[in-house]
Amino acid sequence: MVAKRGAAVSLAMHYSSIAHVIGVLLVVTGSSMSLPIACSLYYQEADLYPLFYSAFITLGCGVPLLYFFRKHNELDIRDGFFIAVSGWVFVSAFSAIPYMLHGSIPSFTDAFFEMISGYTTTGATILTDIEALPHGLLFWRSQTHLLGGMGFLTLAILFLPHGMGGLRLFRAESSPGQVITKEKFKPRNRDTMVRLWWIYIGLNVTQIILLCLGGMDLFDSLCTAFGTVSTSGYSPKNGSIGHYNSAYFDWIITLFMFLGGLSFVLIYQLLKGDTKALKINTEFYWYIGILFFFCGAVTLILWYSGTYSNIIDSLRFGTFQVMSLLTTTGFGTADYEQWPHSAQMLLYIVCFVGACAGSTTSGIKIVHYVIICKYMYASIRKIFFQPMAVISIRLNGRTIDDNIISLALCYFIINILMIFVGGFVMTLTDNMDITTAMSAVISSLMNIGPGFGDVGPSENFAFISNTGKWFLSWNMLVGRLEMFSALVIFYPTFWKK
């Protein structure tokens, strides 16, 4: 009896810690609205008071949680997983308030969809006229990419007290790929997060400068950079990047989408001059190889089919779109549904790939394909050619154990299963055609944004029912947390002591 009472007390103390972290998230969210407020003041538009009141409401809910639950215990792994799911929901819900108060997105479902799409770096939108939004709300929309690109919980860790269990929050939000590659910066989590964010902000600032040098105004440069390095895809223009019709902008954005798809650990090591880390990084070479293959194939198809009159334009548009979908960014410079079907098929395949583990991208990730392909090769070799041999699978110069192989296989299978189940659900809830239903789920689960069919690059998600939007919002969250963190909370034994 005593043990049960102790367990109950421990559980209550954990809820206090959870409430404290949620308070931190809301305070960070409310405080971050100061930049859109400043933007609204500069442009003197009608979104000032909606943003100001929203910041007041968000801070008004977050500060009491910080104060009344300031006595907290260290988080355990269950708390970390619960916060990883509920934290994104709370932040997205409060971030939707400015749009509802302003009236530009009066429906909570639509506003929540737009915000969780922003924070999860999906980039799917319900807006039919993006440019009709005032500048403050447009900036807030793009700023969700900046905050969500590195993972909102990694930002919250910077503000948590030492010893509260930031490692467990980081583990809950980290991808299986980061577990597989065993990448890390520093022993202390706060040091790790500071370095992550410095690299992330540095890439954003560099891109903003380069875009401004090319003639893009500062506001558009900020919004575009926020959507590029975070591999998210919200643009302040209805025509996305195609609006500018500039080869310079296309190549600059392509470069930073590529960098956003790299492991930030690898970028950090290269900045320190550690070239050995690049030489042994298996995933990097696969990343380059996959990009060369798909960019080259799509370019040749566009050229030979006469879609573009010369090889340079074919390379420019083909490379941009492959990079955009492979890194799950979702920017567009052309309506690729007007391209030859063979090119569309390659783009469809690219949607299943994703970039490197430890990057801002989502998707299945290249490291899982590396392991699965090596496992298949080793299995065939062992079964048919060397049945007595002990064949090890190596990644980054290290032998990986069977548990890691099982994790990669499991992660891949769950992704594919969820796509088919999700496609079936969307055909039931919205009576969609198969192409649109499957593509809507793929674009949400892989956090890509645009897809094919009625959710293609020239369309949006506004026509989908409320039930469908909530289902796709859940898929965005599952995809951003890379499956296990979002799904494990439904496992009964997870809640047992």
Describe this structure in words.
The protein is built from 23 helices and 2 strands. With 497 residues, the chain is mainly alpha-helical. The radius of gyration is 23 Å and the shape is globular. The protein has a domain at 1-173. Residues 1-13 have low confidence and may be disordered. The protein has a two-stranded antiparallel ribbon.
Task: Reconstruct the topology from this structure.
Elements (H helix, E strand, L loop, with lengths): L1 H31 L1 H10 L4 H21 L8 H19 L1 H6 L5 H12 L15 H15 L2 H6 L8 H8 L2 H6 L7 H25 L4 H12 L17 H14 L3 H8 L3 H5 L2 H23 L6 H16 L14 H10 L15 H19 L9 E2 L2 E2 L2 H29 L3 H12 L20 H15 L3 H4 L10
Antiparallel strand pairs: 1-2
Helix pairs in contact: 1-3, 1-4, 2-3, 2-7, 4-6, 4-9, 6-7, 6-22, 7-12, 11-12, 11-13, 11-14, 12-13, 13-17, 16-17, 16-18, 19-20, 20-21, 20-22, 21-22
